[in-house]
Design brief:
It is a single chain. With 665 residues, this protein is α+β, with helices and mostly antiparallel strands. Among the domains are: 176 residues, Jelly Rolls; 282 residues, Alkaline Phosphatase, subunit A (3-Layer(aba) Sandwich), CATH 3.40.720.10. The protein has 12 helices and 30 strands. The strands form 6 sheets. It has a 9-stranded mixed beta sheet with strand order 1-19-18-20-15-21-24-16-25, with helices on both faces. Strands 2, 4, 5, 7, 11, 12 and 14 form a 7-stranded antiparallel beta sheet that branches. A 6-stranded antiparallel beta sheet has the order 3-6-13-8-9-10, with no helix packed on it. A hairpin with a 2-residue loop joins strand 28 and strand 29. It is globular, with a radius of gyration of 25 Å.
Length: 665
């Protein structure tokens, strides 16, 4: 756990980061507009340069013959009870030396080096017991050594230390400017022979993490008003639209969301950009499609620091920014905290319930009620495992079936798939395997946790009322994705792009929002970003927050299950009453998954006759299929041009373990 000084005190599983990690154009002027600013300023931090991915600025002076310098991950401490802290790193197995020249044009201001060094905890098992070694680390600025330190290895064990920050003797980051040379060096301080370094498989993962240049700027502090409101963005994880009472659920699962929509504007056909957390949440924070921000799978889970986030835009404007997250995937380790001056995220290998997140968010709101703020609250309640509040059990009672087996939903699907698949259809014959009363129980349990999540939304709304903030606070509610209960033969999420996974609620309420408006046009919830960018400078207008009638909506997943083949990229577009699903490397059912079908495989659905998308009509509509495929590929190609390079970065052990634990692997 990482914890900086805070009046809130320590927590066993939550970290407080009082410095933000932002990605922006540092030479971009602030558009301050006509707001009311006080004389005080606030110190803000943004990432100006990601040195880790500046290959053209990096020169390898020398490297270990068995392990070339590369980009990867290091996790110094591997424990579910500690700060995960698996970071993208420059891997430099000793002896290695690298020189990095700070790119010209990085910034006209001085930049602070935010970096650290460490050894991966699982990489030293081949070291024979009894041998002790020191791994040395050195840092030079323009030829002058500014740091020399070491970490001890003894036998197969590593000295139990977390990352060690690269700072001066006073604990301050080093300051660099464009054109400066930064030299990093690793070496072995050892008396016994290090024969265990002879083979590539035995080499320890040693290196430097983060390697960011951050710019510190004093931003004005703005006051909230009706025209320049506070902003509360609430994202509820794993919430499918049709299980809200707003979206047609016969059970009263979301009374507070219903009330929010009644007094605001709702979108009944909103779509997420993906069917699982990482890509979809990154889209909400950046406004980009997954192809544009690059957070698409375990090997690209890091959000590049040079991409502007909505939090960075807010803090440049003068708003206080706070993020409060219950999903461990939305972590500072993966750079999701950039632009947030305060950021709470799970640092142990588990989710954090609203019972812990919401009180912290409320206290932060109270602390910033006298200035304009942007608060992002990411609730986890509808995500398995289900933990409903007693009030939700009482409001939506349902008897557990006799003999019901309490199994992880994803594992249940795997077992059912193996038991019942007929080898011909693209989904298992669940009617023959899953008792109806069991499925009803699973869905009733989901209703209960949706109700619990809605209660936490109600807690936040009531707190705004109690603090006298509701009148000047814009509230946006949405979800990152939905959840499948065998609608198309699967459970969990991430495996397809069907509406149970991509159709999400979207509601706006507050100053400038039309009252009692329900929009039925399909829209992408990533467009929240564009609206909030306008709200930040008071240029949002008085109409519907999102107005793009007839525009196509795009979504994708790199974790698709296509015709029984897992981990398949699936792309989708909805336009003009049709939906296309396209697997570029998909194969027909029953064929060899290693034999890629030329041109990929597609499915087409006509929404007027098949709104739940069960009947593929692509063969009967070849022209429409071709038009939508062309539209999809052109849009994704344009988005991909925006994505910064993160060459060489793959998933680390900790990332893969976490994904496996929550059912993504």
């Amino acid at each position: 756990m990482t914890l900086s000084s805070s009046p809130l005190g320590p927590s066993a599983i939550i970290s407080l980061l009082l410095c933000s990690c932002g990605g922006s154009d540092p030479d971009r002027p602030n558009a301050l507009g006509h707001g009311v600013f006080i004389e005080e300023t606030r110190a803000t931090t943004e990432i100006a340069v990601e040195l880790l991915f500046q290959e053209q600025a990096r020169v390898v002076i020398h490297e270990n013959a068995n392990a070339p310098v590369s980009v990867g991950h290091i996790r110094p401490i591997a424990s579910e009870f500690t700060d995960l802290r698996e970071l993208p790193s420059l891997l430099m197995t000793p002896p290695s030396e690298v020189q990095i020249t700070i790119p010209t044009g990085s910034s006209s201001r001085a930049l602070q080096l935010h970096a650290n060094f460490g050894i991966d905890s699982k990489s030293c098992e081949a070291n024979p017991k009894g041998q002790e070694h020191l791994i040395g680390f050195e840092v030079f600025l323009n030829g002058d050594r500014v740091l020399r330190d070491s970490i001890r290895l003894r036998g197969p064990y590593i000295q139990k230390v977390n990352w060690i920050d690269i700072v001066d003797k006073n604990g301050a980051p080093f300051v660099l400017s464009a054109g400066d040379d930064l030299t990093l060096r690793t070496h072995v301080v050892s008396t016994p022979p290090m024969d265990w370094l002879a083979t590539e498989d035995d080499l320890p993962k040693v290196g430097f993490g983060r390697l960011q240049l951050r710019e510190h700027v004093e931003a004005p502090i703005e006051l909230a008003s009706e025209g320049l409101p506070n902003i509360l963005l609430v994202v509820m994880d794993t919430l499918r639209a049709d299980r809200t009472s707003l979206g047609g659920n016969s059970a009263l699962t979301t009374p507070f969301l219903d009330g929010l929509a009644k007094e605001g504007t709702s979108y009944g056909q909103a779509r997420a950009t993906s069917s699982w957390t990482w890509p979809s949440t990154a889209s909400l924070l950046t406004g980009r499609l997954p192809a544009g921000h690059g957070v698409q799978e375990s090997g690209s889970s890091y959000m590049h620091g040079e991409i502007d986030t909505i939090a960075e835009i807010m803090q440049r404007r003068g708003l206080a920014t706070g993020g409060f997250v219950g999903n461990r995937l939305v972590s500072s380790n993966f750079n999701f905290d950039q632009g947030f001056q305060t950021f709470f995220d799970p640092q142990a290998n588990e989710f954090v319930a609203g019972s812990e997140i919401v009180p912290i968010a409320k206290r932060w709101i109270s602390d910033h009620k006298d200035e304009r703020f942007f608060a992002y609250v990411h609730l986890i309640e509808p995500h398995h495992p289900y933990r409903p509040r007693p009030e939700s059990l009482a409001a939506l009672p349902h008897d557990e079936p006799v003999g019901y087996q309490h199994r992880n939903l994803h594992q249940s699907w795997v077992e059912l798939w193996l038991e019942s698949n007929d080898g011909v259809s693209d989904r298992p014959l669940l009617h023959a395997s899953l008792p109806a009363e069991d499925l009803a129980w699973i869905q009733a349990s989901y209703n209960q946790v949706v109700h619990t999540g809605d209660m936490y939304l109600g807690d936040l709304l009531q707190h705004l009322e109690d603090e006298g903030l509701r009148e000047n606070t814009l509230i946006i509610f949405t979800a990152d994705h939905g959840e499948e209960f065998y609608d198309h033969g699967y459970s969990n999420h991430g495996q397809s792009l069907y509406p149970e996974l991509t159709h999400v609620p979207l509601v706006f309420n507050g100053p400038g929002i039309p009252v009692g408006i329900a929009v039925d046009e399909p829209v992408s919830n990533r467009l929240i970003f564009d609206y909030l960018r306008d709200v930040a400078i008071g240029d949002a207008g008085k109409g519907a927050p999102i107005e793009r009638p007839g525009a196509p909506v795009f979504f994708s997943t790199h974790r698709g299950n296509w015709n029984g083949v897992p981990m398949t990229e699936v792309l989708g577009v909805q336009h003009d009453g049709w939906v296309l699903h396209f697997a570029p490397e998909g194969t027909p059912w029953g064929s060899d998954p290693e034999m890629v079908h030329e041109g990929g495989v597609m499915r087409l659905y006509e929404l007027a006759s098949d709104p739940l998308q069960h009947t593929d009509v692509s063969l009967a509509n070849l022209e429409k299929t071709a038009v939508l495929k062309d539209l999809l590929l052109k849009r994704l190609a344009a988005s991909a041009k925006l994505r910064p390079s993160m060459s060489g970065l793959d998933a680390g052990d900790g990332t893969n373990e976490m994904l496996q634990d929550v059912g993504y692997l």
